[in-house]
UniProtKB/TrEMBL annotation:
GO terms for cellular component: cytosol. It comes from Streptomyces prasinopilosus. This is Uncharacterized protein, MTH1187 family. Transmembrane segments: none annotated. Residues 3-92 form the Thiamine-binding protein domain. Coiled coil: none annotated. The lineage of its organism: Bacteria, Bacillati, Actinomycetota, Actinomycetes, Kitasatosporales. InterPro entries: MTH1187/YkoF-like, Thiamine_BP, UPF0045_domain. Belongs to the UPF0045 family.
Length: 103
């Protein structure tokens, strides 16, 4: 499964990067495949592993902020591995200059 999630501390002002970094650090230290972009962090693994990482990432922010917002989206597809890479590669193939435009 792939989970894309965003953890946002509330009540700490506008500069939240330091708090978000605490959450991302938890994800990166988990050893699970992951990616972070400007809006979400995606992590891939089985249900229990991924949800444990999300829980710990939220707890890391919660330890320093009076309130936390969590947005989560999951792609639950048993038997699929390396989805973080393969899903993007599929789109990139269609975007390639030599891709068949008639699709």
């Amino acid at each position: 499964m792939i989970v894309a999630f965003s953890v946002t501390p509330l009540g700490v002002g506008e500069d939240v990067g330091e708090y978000v970094a605490d959450a991302v650090r938890v994800v990166r230290e988990s050893g699970l495949p992951n990616r972070t972009d400007a809006m979400f962090t995606s992590v891939e693994g089985d249900w229990d592993e991924v949800m444990d990482v999300v829980r710990r990432a939220v707890a890391a922010v919660e330890a320093r902020a009076p309130r936390v917002s969590l947005v989560l989206k999951a792609d639950i597809r048993p038997g699929t591995e390396d989805g973080l890479t393969s899903k993007v590669a599929t789109v990139e193939r269609y975007l390639a200059p030599d891709a068949d435009e008639s699709r």
